[in-house]
Structure formats: C-alpha cells, structure tokens
Amino acid sequence: MDRATNEVWWAEGDTPVHNDSRVTYFVDGEAVLLEMCLCFMRATQSIYLANWGMEPDLLLARGEALLVEQSNADTQAAYCDYLRSQGLQQADIDFWQSNHLTVRNVLAHALSKGIEVKVLLWKANKTFAVYDPQAASDKLIEKGITCLLDTSAEGILHHQIESLHQKVTVVDHSIAFVGGVDPLIEKEEDFDRWDTNAHIFDTPLRRTDSGKTPHGWHDTHAKIEGPAAGDVELNFRQRWNDVIEHQHLDNQLLIPEHPTPAPVESQSIMQIARTVPKHTYHFNKEAIQGITQLYDHALSNVQHFLYIENQYLWLRAYYGVDISLMGQDSPEMKGHLRQIVAALRRGASMSILLPDHPNVGRAFTDAALTILRTEVPEAVTEGRLNAFCLATSQYKMSDGLIHYRPIYVHSKAAIVDDLWSTVGSANLNNRGMRDDTEINVATLDRSLAYGLRLLLQAEHLGLLKHDELYAAARYYRQEQFPDDKRAQAEQAFQHIEAALSDPRQAIQLMSQRAQENLQHYKDRQPLNGHLLPYLTAKEATEQGLNFRQDHGWIEEPEN
C-alpha cells in the first residue's frame, strides 16, 4: 500500500499540500544560522523576519566562518572560496571578511544594497520575557531597519502568557525558514541559540562577557523553497499587515501580495501548518489549529515507531502556575496521548527526547510520561517506550573532577516510521496546539525523515566528531563539496547509517548508552555522547540524585 496516498496526513482549511516545494532540515544553531546568513547575503529583493525573541548582536557565524577574527591567511582564502561557491558576490565577501556578522550588521548590509528588510518581534510581557523587545527594536532601528513590536497577544481576550512563538524567515519571497531557532541570547546571558552539534561544556565560541558559557542548546529548523515558501510569506504578510492596521501605522508599510514562487523539483509531499488562537489577529475569525491536525493524523498512522524531540509533553494546560495538579486537561494533548497509547498497544515503539531542566512545567511532563507508562506497562518492560535527556561533561583542573551540565532540548521535531516528519515552533502542550501562535512544516519523504533521524541519533550518541557529523549533515542536505571533501562526507554519513539504519536497533543503542552514562554520572566519569535517561522527579529521588524542581537532576548546585 502507498501510505502517502492511502492514509490521511494533512491539515485542512488553511494552507495547501505541495509536491512542488523542497524542504531541507538543519540540526542545531551553527548550521541553520550560517545558512540564514548566506541567504541574507544573496538576497536581491527582501528579507522578512518574525521572531519570538531576538538579540540583534547575536553572531550568525563563528569559528572559522568569522573571518574578521581569523588570522590565518590560508584559512581565510579557503573560506572565501567557499563563499564564492555559495553564490556570494565579491562585495559581500569583502563585507564578510571585515565585519562581525551580527544579525543587525548583516541586515543593515542588505539594507544598504536596497533590499527591503522588515522585522516583526513579539512584544513580550515583561513579567515572563526572556529578552527586552524594545531594546532589540531600538538596536535594529538605529541601523535603519524597519521593526515593529507585535502586541496582538495582549488584551482581555488573551491569557497573560500567550506568546507569538513563531520563528519565521522569508528571503526574496521564495525561500523560507521555520523551526525552533530564534536569533537570541537570553537577557541573563544564558541559552545562546547558536551552538554546535558537540554542545561543548565550555567554549570561547559561546562565552559571554562575564566569562561563562551558556547551557548547551539542541534545536532543529527547516528551510523551504518553492511555492510552499509563499505560504510562509503569506503568514508573515498577514501578521505584519494586521499589526499595521491595528496600530494605525502608515499604510505605506503594508506588504502587497507577491507572485507565487516558481515550482522546484522535489520528491516530498509537504505542508505548512499553523496554530493561531482566536482573537489574536483579524485575518482569522476562528482559531487556526493546523498543527494539532497534523499530529492527530500522524500519530494515528504510526505502525512501527515514533521518534519525538520536544521541549514539553503536557496533558494539563499551563497558564502560569507551575503545579501539575492544577488546571484542566488540554483536549488536543489528551487526544494525542490517547493516540500514542493506541500505537504502543499495537506494538509500535516510542522514544522521546526532553530537557531535564525545562524553563517551566517539569512536573507536567513527568505526569504525562507516567500516564503513558501506566497505560501501556508492557511497552516499558519490552523496551518500546523510552525517554531521554541530554547533558555534557568536562574535566576541571581546579578540583580534578568531572562536572556535568544539562543540554537544553528545544527541538520540536517528530518522525513516524521514517516516512513522515515535522519540524517547527510548536511544542507538545496546550500552547503549541491551541494557545500560542506557531508554525510547522510537515513532509512525507522517506529519505528526508530517515536522514533526519540518523543525524539526530548520531549526535546524541556521539558516533562522530563535530567536523565529521557536520560534513555528514551537509551531505544529507545535498550541499556542494570539492571532490575530496565529498568523499569524506559520504563516508561519515555511511558510518552512521551502518550503525543506525534499523530504527529499533538504534533505539536499543540509545537506551544502552543512556544507562551507561547514568552510571558514569554517578561514578563521576566522562559521558560518552550526550544521552542520559529522562528521570521523573520520583525516579531521580529514588536513585539518590539531587533533584530540584527548577533545575532537574543533572545541574550541579552553584558553590
């Protein structure tokens, strides 16, 4: 049976399904922020960004890519050759060589070439904000960039923590990005979204002015080309124009409709889907809930396995009180957990990657996992239901001990049977499914889903060194290489494919590695890769670990 045509996968009533658009997945901030930077440099018409948060001084490119701090002439020359191969003009390469590639510097460079640049930022409630929207806006406006603060989630019809959570980029009306990565470093100098697949404990590439390295940050993002990029621009245009009209701003700022981007060759069937609460914008008379529809269909179609990475897994709706027994069940999440239970009872496997120290709602996730384990105990005993978290370790000469830090799992990715996959901004909770403004892309494409799973699992297991995994990811994305480098990248991808091609064996390997690392943690030994079991508060306490509700069990107390 052709599952792509004989099973229902898609959301209805908002955006069309495409077979003429291309989707490319990126893992972690280093890769996707560099790709965005390249796209900004190549732009000839327009750049639109809509973000939950932004730090205009965030560096989009670092390490060998930050040529202004690169003293080795041969390295500089080689990287300039790479930039030429990526389609950059000499003037852009000169700019790349002589400037720090911060968000606002790169956008201002585009603006200086006559490119239309517009930025839409959520005006976050000061009580809950992790960045200063006005300060970010001021930094952009200083460079001549048009920036609006979106207040659409404010008012008596909205709960006080409703957020405009999309992370949207559109370049030249034909290339778009959606996913989990905001160009942001939070205001306490922690949680820098730029991170490598190595998630190093302490590195000058991420060190702040105070001398500390922010917690590691694991994320996923997607690039969309072709007519579906027009659906992402439609989303941006609707939101932007709504803000112009609602705030009674100059009508000259309105964005007109542009022609649909030209089709591109693709083996994917895909769709852009949104969550937009009722009363948030004037363009939607009723709530838009396309993302929960996507999950509804995909979870019902699980035959063999479900792989999830998410910041949360909540049944109960969270509205600012971090007590899992309070509040009502989210009807969308109640349905999704029921679908997961049904899949497990059919004999399918599920593995989920979660942060040990989410910003809120640790007990909410514990409660949802406990429901799954209670409803299908045989899946636990048979090793078909696994939950993991991530951490990094480092030896410190100051005390001669191994130290540990959790890696923040912010990725919102899901894979069903190496066939269907989604990446976006929506978390598995009431907010992602109903109460916040979100955007995801979903695809039916075996090679795309399969490759994404391999790269994610290889990273968590530590199967390859940073440079090797980075090259394997570029090979998966079908990027151009010099002949000698291409052979090395292909070999790296084949290495992880040999280890992980069977999804059940891959999960067994992850489970084994997580348990080994738990023992390493207890014995104060270095971790092998980043995997640890996700332990509920009860489980961590029973094992004698130092669990704290606000920090999880991995984080070490500050001296």
TrEMBL record:
It catalyses: a 1,2-diacyl-sn-glycero-3-phosphocholine + H2O = a 1,2-diacyl-sn-glycero-3-phosphate + choline + H(+). GO terms for biological process: phospholipid catabolic process. This is Phospholipase. It comes from the Bacteria. GO terms for molecular function: phospholipase D activity. Keywords: Hydrolase, Lipid metabolism, Repeat. It holds the Pfam family PLDc_2. The keyword Cytoplasm does not apply. Residues 160-182, 405-432 form the PLD phosphodiesterase domain. GO terms for cellular component: plasma membrane.
